[in-house]
Amino acid sequence: MRIRTLTLAAASGAALLAAGLLPTSASGTTGPTSAREGSVGAAELLAKVTSCSQISNGKYRTDEETSATVPVCGKNGAVFWKADMDIDCDGRRTDKCNENTDPWFQDDTAFHQSDGRPLRADSLPYVVVPSSSGIWNYAGAGIKGGGVVAVVYDNKVQYAVVGDTGPSKIIGEASYATAQALGIDPDPASGGTDSGVTYILFKNSQVSPIESHGAAVSLGERLAKEFIRNN
Fold it and tell me: How far apart are CA 71 and CA 140, in angstroms?
């Protein structure tokens, strides 16, 4: 993940956009096929995160140039935050994610596929968590690489995995595939959205293999139902 600034994002050229549903990757990873996955609705999830019991030691910025306003909040079985969405195109090089389309491109992700290769941002829905710091340690909160995340935006629910780590003071980023499935502009240089995204990360969960989106949806729906029941 790169540290993006509002100035750079505004100035960067557009990358090529993909239209329609996400394809199956060469590795056999299948991208998301629906803007709403599973039977748990966005309103049901959002009703459980209307108030915040802050567990972070301070708050995060959404971009390098913004003030710190976003806390990490605790619930039974999950943590959550409400932020923007910047686009992460890191990992395997593809026609959509590379040095030419993304000024901040890195050819690796913090967590890898079962075959050892970096994740593929344009076909795998994943979320970026802040690197551990004095503000918050994601691992200490039961959040793992490959953990399930319910991402809610514009009355849509998309399941993703924890796939990468980012700057220790910035929050609110997800992969190209996550954004595209939610109807957010996935352009890594100029896309994303400034607000309105809720990230619910289920504690002590882990999808295996991490690159199986179908497994993430199946586990995510079960954990989402438990989350609604227990909060």
Answer: 16
At 61-76, the pLDDT tens digits run 999 999 999 999 999 9
Helix intervals (H) in the chain? 6-11, 42-46, 176-181, 213-230
What is the C-alpha separation between 20 and 134, in angstroms, rounded?
41
Q: How far apart are CA 175 and CA 11, in angstroms?
A: 21
What's at 158, amino acid-wise? Q
In the chain, the amino acid numbered 13 is G
Does residue 18 carry a pLDDT above 80? no
Q: What single DSSP character describes residue 30?
A: B
Question: What residues does 79 pair with on adjacent strands?
Answer: 74, 201
Computed from CA positions of residues 206, 221, 137, 64, in that sequence, does the dihedral angle turn out positive or negative?
positive
Look up residue 37 and give its amino acid: E
Task: Name the H helices within 73-212.
Answer: 176-181
Among all chains, which residue has been given the structure tokens 């979320």? 127
Whether the CB-CB separation of 204 and 76 falls below 8 Å is answered with no
Supply the pLDDT for residue 69: 98
